[in-house]
Request: fold
Amino acid sequence: MEFLGTTQTASYCGPKKGCDSTQRPSTVQAPVIQECYQPCHLPGYRYLNSWRPSLFYKISTAQTCPHECRSTLRPPTVLPALRSALFCRYSPHDWDQSNQLQIRGAEASRLWANRLTGDSMRLMQDKEQLTRQMQEGTSWNLGQRLSDIGFWKSELCHELDRLLAENRSMETVKRRLECAAEEVNCPLQVALECLYHREKRIGIDLVHDNVEKNLIREVDLLKCCQERMRQLAQRVDIQMRDNRDAQHALERDLEDKNSAQFIDEKCFNLRNTSDCISYFHGMEKVDGTVSVPETWAKFSNDNIRHSQNTRANSIRLREEAEHLFENLSDQMWKQFTDTNLAFNARISEETDVKNKLQTELAKTLQEIFQTENTITLLERSITAKEYPLKVAQTRLECRSRRPNVELCRDIPQFKLVNEVFTIDDTLQTLRLRLREAQDTLQLLLMTKSRLEHELAIKANTLCIDKKCMAMRKTFPSTPRLVGYTCAAPCVGPCTPYPAQVC
Reply:
């Protein structure tokens, strides 16, 4: 039976040798053993020699000592499994030391757990009491906060009611002032519409003439007359905006108070057994507050005081609304008449210029006709020169296919080249003259276009001025100008004509 996986120290690895020193070779014994036996390692025992306990070295040394080889007894054969188990064993001292270490560790863990349990119970009791006290204090603070919110809500509601009543009174005053100023809006709108339409004049006709000067003076006069009527209306409007700002501030503050009261009531009614509670990690680290109790109360107090001041100003303005409508109609009527006279003079001038431009346009059209005839003749001449050029170039191309030495630059070749250059130069000269004639034609066409454009400008200007005169046929009566009646929307002659392309 053959055993595999034995070490090289086994005595049966090589041929049997006597232990006598006289019979054992002194120098070649180890090589003979290596040549006759190659160790075969079983799976799992390949690297067993990398670590061996001290007990193995003692046994190995005792078995391989040269002096003990003199014994006549052969060492017993040790199986690989038994020898491997022998290598991995610990000493009794190691076993006792490991057991004592486990016992001491268990005792230390048990003592630490008992101490931690006692400390934890005391800590839970203390924290439970602290948590209950803090929760009760927070609920009491929320109740106080709800009382403060209710007080300021009542103050804000009272002031808001008084401010709304004052705003209604200011609305009535504003409507009365606008009714008086609306009468001036109609002629002012007509004058502004005339200026707007005259801004549609094109090119050189967009001139600052007497008509425009009179229209501007009329607009300035109407605005000046309207200024005294609208001055108080503007102040009332500004005051109403201030009132609305105060109203919005009160409403915003009141709305915030309602929201805060709803939220605080919800928070006040929350208990540990409520269903809507949940974790919101990190909220204690977020400081989104923007005020403290002092600034919070001061904010509402400032809103109420601001509302009271705006109400006082509004009452003063309502006492100044009855003295704006006298001594204005004469100046407006005079300026209205001057502007109409300027319109008539300007229309006459534009009609004369338009007639002269039409005469020049007729002459330009005649010259364009003659230039077009010249261009036609030049184009025919150029077309006539193209065929001789094609003949000469075709001859040159055919002669370029002559074989070998026959491809000679002879007199026909020279003449053909000279003919091509001459015809090409002639065509360039004719084309240059054609371009000049075309440029002249384009110049005449541009002149024609400019004249037609100028005629269109003059026609557009005449149409605009006549349309403006049609808009200025009537003017509001004196009773309406001084504000005795409430103005209706501008209808009839005062209504501006819709924008038209003349």
Remarks:
- The radius of gyration is 60 Å.
- The CA atoms of residues 11 and 75 lie 7 Å apart.
